[in-house]
Amino acid sequence: GKVAEVAAGIGHFLGLMPLELRETSHVTLVEPDPTSATIAKALYVSNKCKQTRVLNTGIEDAHVAPNSFDLAISNVPFGNFTVYDKRFKQLKAKIHDYFFAKGLDLVRPGGI
User: Fold this and answer.
1) Which of 76, 68, 5 lies closest to 37, judged by CA?
2) Distance CA 107, CA 89 (A)
3) What is the largest CA-CA distance in the chain?
4) Are the C-beta atoms of 64 and 28 separated by less than 8 Å?
């Protein structure tokens, strides 16, 4: 299916996914830190993972469609600050709450 790993870091969740599952999944990693995103690209965007893309941006700015993933997974960041996302501006949620809301928004009905 389609998998989103947001706040991916170097893609550790993807790295632990069984290879046979990884090879049949379309995976999108979203990571704002350029060093971590570069490492994730080096590790997972290859011939073995042709269906993997790494977006070096914050999830609030990533070009990903709502209701388009079968699974969203994240090492949710925690903090006492908000993230601006025009789709969720009414929430005024702290970053950790925002990540849960955004994750739910990314997953299709019936997704995980």
Assistant:
1) 5
2) 19
3) 42
4) yes
Task: Please tell me whether residue 33 adopts helix, strand or coil conformation.
Answer: coil
Ramachandran quadrant class, 88 (left: phi over 0; alpha: psi -120 to 50; beta: rest): alpha
Q: Which of 70, 79, 77, 68 lies closest to 99, judged by CA?
A: 77
Type of residue at 12: H
Return d(Cα 26, Cα 24) in angstroms, integer.
7
Cα 3 to Cα 12: distance, rounded to the nearest angstrom? 14
Q: Which tens digit of pLDDT belongs to each residue from 35-86?
A: 999 999 999 887 556 689 999 999 999 999 999 999 999 988 888 988 888 8
| DSSP per-residue codes, 69-99 | BSEEEE-----S-B---GGGTTT--BHHHHH
Task: At 54, list the tokens.
Answer: 């790494």
Buried/exposed 8-25: b ≥16 CB within 10 Å, e otherwise? bbbbeebeebeeeebeeb
Question: pLDDT above 70 covers what percent of the chain?
Answer: 96
Element housing 53 (H / E): strand 52-55
